């Protein structure tokens, strides 16, 4: 995600264009085996930018394994469909990129393999536990995290300084500041509620203690409209009703408003710092980054937004070699250097050793010299380690977003959208044969 | 009775010799039809039914090896408890109630107008009416999408000039917007069907009506329409089946407006179940439900009109 730069990449998960999905039957073919050179071949598909450079760096330094790389579209733009079709045809590559919310779905479909026994203890220990928890279901590990993206408050530091606004540390302060901005500015708003941004909303609900899905005791416990989620939804609903935030899709109009300086904060993952630099180079020196507001002053709970993992497929014929590449990719400094050579990125790696590499490469002058990586590290530790994504996350978020978009035109609320997402998900899971415990909120 | 059977048997004996090659020719000529029917209709149908009963089964958390298993009515139970599927059915009902009367009455009016006068313009009008039908549905949807999109549409701009703010892609306007595309596409086609049927109405009958003092309107309502009743039933059936399969237009528009969700119509629900949710059992069950509903409705409609016709005859 982080390397992919565009905010739409993060959204793409929820926005996946179904038309493309159906048409993308023919993709690259991933076959592994022993090449003529005597090297073991491992195939790797990813949409993350810089993967090409990473693979090149790996191949240059390894004599026993050769990685063959194919760039595929992002998941939302058909990448996941290509992958599923390949897996169905029995020729999925050895290693693929999955975003966190996709992991359980790909495991259930038998595409992502259980790697608990293949993954070395040293690698497990190197990876930040909050990240590893997100790819661990029922005590088994199914994917190796690449980056963990804590949610942050990106804000217009120049405007805040000019008008004497203080950076909000709680959501109440955020709402209060939002009202001031609405009243004092000319058509300015503190933020938007993105109607197509189910992953943003999921991040806020994580922070509040929501537990949409929980894989426990052999059953999926589904409770999207739990008390914390309702609290978050009602909070944002009030802001929408009071015209404090704009309810709109995260799209061109939002981009234009950001460029015109009409939106003063963005609440998104760490990766968005780099995306902002690429999208609006002219706003250099105008943005700062702060921790996401908390529900209670001094509380330290956080959700994540974006971030990718690498999974080994069950089709893989060379799991050991694939694992070697995979582990090098997420933990070797050369891998990080190669990835960052492809362009600006502010991804937050899950292996501590690589944070230093990322920090060195990142040009902090855009943020007025702010030490953003220290902030990332501090915030990443607050990310919850007990959050599970659901078995059909794209679809769950799609239904939620469809209903978010109806809020302005109907008398439905954000809470209704959450309930609709739950109601539209349960039959789906039951039809798959999963054991589902619905927890009505 | 036995006498007639015997003569028939005797007769068939005498023609058996000549019948065999004819039967062979018949079989040969019919084969392409049956092959195509088997390949494009029966086989997918059987597959869908099979998939709705035997599908991927993931017990518990679903992290074990997925296996193909008999799941009984599980997929059907899921379809019927899915509020989003029920919403798509409700939507299609509303769509039927708006679209079918509009397109049938509209096409009938046009055909009657063509039939009564404007003789010189007739070929030109017919062509003009039929042309939209020749445009593939996806192209039509793209053209209309352009005409609907606020900011680039000349229509919304013109309306804005009249102080009318209309968002064709808004939640409340989206059904009329799709009905409009559908009517635009099919109106000409149906009116050509009606017009052809009207051509077959015997001229003597119309003359008799004129002699009896009926004007153009009365003749149309009391003579022409009852005489092309079977065409009306056919158009009703066609348009109903078309509506139940509504897919292309909302699918394309859904890319531009959040008011059309990914499970808007039953066909879109099926598509979403298969390709977004990767739930083939669910998709197959929903397809079977849609097919059975279509068959029942078609059967019901033909039965109803048959009864009406018999009542009128007696």
Polypeptide structure, described:
The complex is a heterodimer of chains A (441) and B (314). Chain A is α/β, with parallel strands linked by helices and 441 residues long. Chain A has helices at 7-15, 18-23, 51-61, 79-88, 103-108, 121-126, 129-133, 157-163, 171-184, 198-208, 227-241, 252-259, 272-279, 319-331, 333-340, 352-361, 372-380, 393-404, 414-431, and strands spanning 33-34, 40-46, 65-71, 95-99, 136-137, 140-141, 144-145, 151-156, 192-194, 213-216, 219-222, 246-248, 265-269, 287-291, 308-312, 436-438. In chain A, the strands form 5 sheets. In chain A, strands 1, 2, 3, 4, 7 and 15 form a 6-stranded mixed sheet that branches. In chain A, helix 3 (51-61) crosses helix 15 (333-340), helix 10 (198-208) packs across helix 11 and helix 18 (393-404) runs antiparallel to helix 19 (414-431). By secondary structure, chain B is mainly alpha-helical. Chain B has 2 domains: 2-70, no CATH class; 81-313, MetI-like fold, CATH 1.10.3720. Chain B has 13 helices and 2 strands. Chain B has a two-stranded antiparallel sheet. The longest helix of chain B has 52 residues, at 2-53. Chain B starts with a helix and ends with a helix. The chains are: A alpha/beta (441), B mainly alpha (314). Chains A and B meet through helix 2, helix 5, helix 18 and helix 19 of A and strand 1, helix 2, helix 3, helix 12 and helix 13 of B.
How would you spell out the order of helices and strands of chain B? HEEHHHHHHHHHHHH
Round the Cα radius of gyration of chain A to an integer and report it.
21 Å
Q: Major sheet of chain A, described briefly?
A: 6 strands, mixed
Count of distinct structural domains of chain B? 2
How many helices of chain A?
19
CATH architecture of the largest domain in chain A: 3-Layer(aba) Sandwich
Described by its quaternary structure, the protein is heterodimer
Q: Approximately what portion of the residues of chain B adopt beta-strand conformation? A: under 5%
Structural class of chain A: alpha/beta
Which residue ranges of chain A are poorly predicted, with pLDDT under 50 across at least 5 consecutive positions? Answer: 1-27
Strand order of the largest sheet of chain B: 1-2
- Write the CATH fold name of the largest domain in chain B: MetI-like fold
Backbone CA Rg of chain B: 26 Å
CATH class of the largest domain in chain A: Alpha Beta
Name given to the CATH homologous superfamily of the largest domain in chain A? Periplasmic binding protein-like II
Corresponding CATH superfamily of the largest domain in chain B: MetI-like
Q: Count of DSSP E strands of chain A? A: 16
Report the average pLDDT across residues of chain A. Answer: 90
What's the CATH topology label of the largest domain in chain A?
D-Maltodextrin-Binding Protein, domain 2
- Judged by helices, strands and strand pairing, the structural class of chain B is mainly alpha
Helix percent of chain A reads: 40-55%
